Fold each of these.
Amino acid sequence: VELFGFPLLGRTVLVQRRADGLTVYDQARTVTHAVGVNSGRYQDLGPLRGVLPITNTGGLFPGSSERDTTALSYLFVQPGATFSAQSRAARKYADRYFNTRDDIVGVTGSVPARALQGRIIRDRLPVVEALTLGAIVVIVGVNFASVVAPVVTLVTTAVAFVLTLRLSGYFTDLFDVASPTELEPVVVALLLGVVTDYVVFYCSALRHQLRAGADRLTAARNATAQFAPIIGVAGLAVAAGTAALLVAESAFFQALGPALIFTVFTGLIVAITLVPAFMAVLGKWLFWPTRPEPVVPAEPVASAAESAEPAQARRSRWSRLSPVDWITASRRNAAITVAACVGGLTLAALPVVRLDLGVSFVGSLPTNTEVAQTATAAEAGFTEGILAPTVLLVEGVSLSDRQTALSQLGEQLKTVEGVAGVLGPQDEPAGLELSVLLAETGTAARYLIVLEDEPLGARAIHTVDRIRDTLPSMLGSAGLTDAEVGLAGDSATASFIVAQTEDDLLRIAVAAVLANLLMLTIFLRALVAPVYLLLATVLSLGAALGLTTFVFDLLEPGVGLTFYVPFAAAVLLLAFGSDYNIFGVGHVWDVARRRPLTEAIRVAMPQTTRAINAAGIALAASFGLLAVVPLGPFRQLAFAMAIGILIDVLVVRSVLMPALLTLVGPASAWPNKRLLAQDGEDPAGSAPVLGQAT
């Protein structure tokens, strides 16, 4: 801006296209209108300060797929203008100075795309909320065979939602910290999901107490006393896990972290205060029209005849056992289960090694929008990277007298892999009334570098990185070693964002793992179990990200995942994994105070598994419905979260966790020896068989 008067960042583009060719007069009118803006004759265009027209006439860009069919007008605005203001200025320019004979397709670019993204999110957010609530009603209703339990869930989530909206506005003004608006649906899904989780946990505990014969108040009191600490610690684990985002240097993640923490805390406080009150008031009516009847469990004892039964008969009896019974029957079974789960999850996680990150705006839009269709028209006439060229700024002494060197640098830029074309000072169109590519002072020059790929995709980012790496040698060959250079534009910005995000990865990962490990260690008062439970969660996370990478590589080759998707998913899935670890193992630990560990697993796991599965399916639905927002990043995040939660609850919590507890045995509680003193395993390492006297 200081050197040229306006930035050469074409984030808003007016596209003209005629399949049978634009006439010379059509192209001349486009240039005339650009001169009108550049000379100041065209007034009242808001922040619009300059226009650079480019056509695919005469093969200006070697990568152009057509000739004489398409004209682009890059619109340059004053710094600081909002996306909406820039879009309005572009539309005003098109409507005022062009007509039907000019074959205007529309306005596109990253700025109109971001403005449209905001409108789409605002329009679809109520739909996401309604569908999520509907899914929660169905899942909770089916799980408890009740019409009252879903109503309690809706009331609790409604209270939490209203409090979150009111208080978040207050704290935003107080601390001047606001979460990214594009992730507002994620915050809503998180709130609805965690509140539903805790309602399901409480209701499962109440039903268990009622079936054990407790009266209404006793059942509510016992369920609250048993599970309120577990739910409280689980909620703190989720909050602590999301707090890992605060260690990032990226302003995006730093702003997202407080929003997630506040959302989890609000949902937790509402759940642990309101739901116990509902349980105490409603009792068994919470499960109407069904009523949990007291059940006296029969203690199966093996008779002498059963002990002497043939091996074939025993195998037939084992075939009727539940998965948990089979897993806990012996350490051999547990080892087989662990090996199968670890092998399958590792295989699913392998695509993570080729994970590429991008920043998607135009490419993430629905194909039926004007911005996307206009982008397609521009790319058809040129190449995919035409909408947002990368700008190379060169500063040096007397550059206006070194045209040969500048021309040589431009030719070298064209040879970089992934570059479709270069427009340099030697190519500056005449008569534009502005020094667009060579400053009037002669001390600065600019190059427009058009890439072969979508400007914000992973491939384009790699191309920008190659340009940056080879610039020193190209400057030396061109005789411009004394010049200072810099890259700008959407692709260069995306490269910086991705690099910063990757740098944040280690900090976020270490903080998230330590936070979750600390919560597990404090709650379980052990060192061994937290380590292998957290490793299982990390493996589940790797499988989710691996499957997400694999699927979207097939659907959108070369684009990569949007930069924040894998990191937001990783933090949330780690936090939810610790949440389910605390709930699942916490109940086993509680029962193991009175029974041997293997028996405690058999007694506690069926109840906790049912509750975790119901809560997990509700949470997966809550995040999965983010796909209703028709934008690429939301589809990616919805898939990653839904598949990650389902893997966690259906594989890790239901199968791998009891297998690990059985395989490691009472040593899981080390250095606490409570489980060692109570275990009834034989010296050979076989766990007690279901029904065997201990």
Amino acid sequence: MTGPSAEPADRPANDEETLQSYLPWSPRFPFAASGLYTWTLLWPPFRAPEPRIPARIPIPDPGPRFSSGSNGAKGEASERAFAEVSDTADSWLFPVLKEQVRIDVDGRYPQMAVSGDMTIGFRTSIHWIANLTQTGSGTYAGAIWYKDPATASFPYTSVVVETFGGWFPLTRTARITFGGPNVQRIRTYRYTSPYFHDVNLEVDCQTGETAAMSIDTCAHPNRPAALPCETLTIPQVFRRAGFNVTSSPGGPVPIAGAGANAAWSNQEMHDAMQVYWSRYAPNAQWAAWVFFASLHEWGTSLGGIMFDDIGPQQRQGTAIFNDSFISNQPAGDPAPAAFVSRMLFWTAVHETGHAFNLAHAWQKSLTSGGHGPWIPLVDEPEARSFMNYPYNVNGGTTAFFSDFEYRFSDQELLFMRHAPSRFVEQGNALWFDHHGFQAADTVPEPALALVLRVNRERPVFEFLEPVTIELKLTNSTTRPQVVSERVLDLDQGITFMVKKDGRPSRQVVPFARYCLETATRVLAPGESMYAPLLASVGRNGWDLATPGNYTIQALLHLPSGEDIVSNELQVRVAPPRSFDDEVLAQDFFTDDVGRVLAFEGTRVLGDATETLMAITEKLPHRRVAAHANLVLGNVLAKDYKTLTADVTDKVQPLRIKTLPASQDEAKERLIAALTTAPEQSAETFGHVRFRETVDRMATWLAGEGETKEAYKQEEILLETLSAREVHGRKVL
């Protein structure tokens, strides 16, 4: 079984009648189905009859089984068993303690999506998102396109959502069938709330200022013709976005906090937030402080700001400046007072939206100070959204408000409602970090699959060891696929992100980009292509170096516009082993050494060369020494051209100088790097790069007349890879 269908074939024909006879007050949803649903180990108090659909999950054979009377002779292999996952049994080592799902199929601005959080044991949490299509009355189905983390513990790829309910909220339920390759899981959830999250907004004002908390939507004549006339409040805007908004009582904030200039700096507002916000706490919480003041220290040009980007808990405070340019009445406007009221209200919602980690509509793909989207969002420069600037669109403010419906865009609503909570919750992920988790232009069943992996049993790297990742691109269809020969090169279509736990994500940017003639190849069905990638360092510096846990993910952008998103790979960098490690690290983690490793050698960057030689002398048996010997030997294998300057030569001051090769030292270092300890070298370089470099060394040796030595190196390569197993699978 590859996934659930809208109507499983072995479901009784009268399943709905059976359910209604069992729960006569819980028919199919005659009301809105959207909202938050939960399941815990203490619930449900009742169980609606559910079809038992066996899900054949292979369980590893516990070992050989011996037939009686065989005197220990091995009998037939034991028959493979299968297990079923349902409401009463899960396949995790620790129990599933709690689940929440957010169904988003009707009501205000439905996104036709469902997402869920699953708490396993006491710490592990899995988040998933699926797009939905209605397949019947109260029934929806679709593919799961996002998992956080992308773990084998959650192997499901599709869902079927069935909603049941009645007049009373406690009678409403949703049954979700999770499907995937050879696995199925059924869970029934209890309706909890029409909102997806709870959030508290507290509004305080500088003494003498007022808060623009509401707007008459029809007060200004420039508006959409179909816009409902109502008094709309800020809490209502966020309730329509899916949040159960409560308010804490606010109060006046003395102007003395702004200092002698009576204008607020970000630091002064942050201090005021800690004093006057009744819910302030140095931790993440679903709560924000909205502050209406007179002016920022930048003057009238700043209408509002999400000022809280200080410290580890950010996005908790926003400010609106009543006496800034947003209160200027435009000349010739038919309703200037209504125009100002609308701008004040728009600014307040806009800045509060930033507290939910929403970027500007035209900056969704932007990175700032190392912070940015995990997967790039699509910019929306013409969106009629609270997160766009009215004067930025074609036609300016008049064109913007003529189509503005006092809402967020669908892309923004999907993020707010269904992103992992830590991306959105105030005080959690840093400002501008993870604001764009969703925007890849993916398809439910992509033709190509991209996998990141490391060729070792545990993804743990020694301190100082350069991290090499292997990329595997597979044709997952039954048809041949044409791809570029260089599709997996970092300077072509790959976006590669590294995120250390507790830190913003960073993009690994290559030191050089190449302009080459386009060449293609055909991937047969099931065929794969591979490429190694030095993930530790790039133009942004050493992104993967200091001890700790990291998450790595890649996105491949195809010429067709489709984006292929890889799995999330978790790796760990171990702490230093000795004082020597810490001393060498000060010279090793430099831009020059990073460039030498990336370009596989230099005979010009003397300090970097000395550092790498010191590595080979002081840490000869460590994995970093293999990388150092490789780049040191590589540049000695052939003559090396350098550009030199002679200031005394007025006619031709620049000359090309050739440094002769040193074959003996090159051979010694290359063999030390690759085949002296071949098992370790295969692991630290990865199988693809290990094979490429040994082949290259053997070709060079043969060209130097050392045919016998070349054959010897190829034999070591074959023996090493033939003997290697990773996670129980043979390499060759």
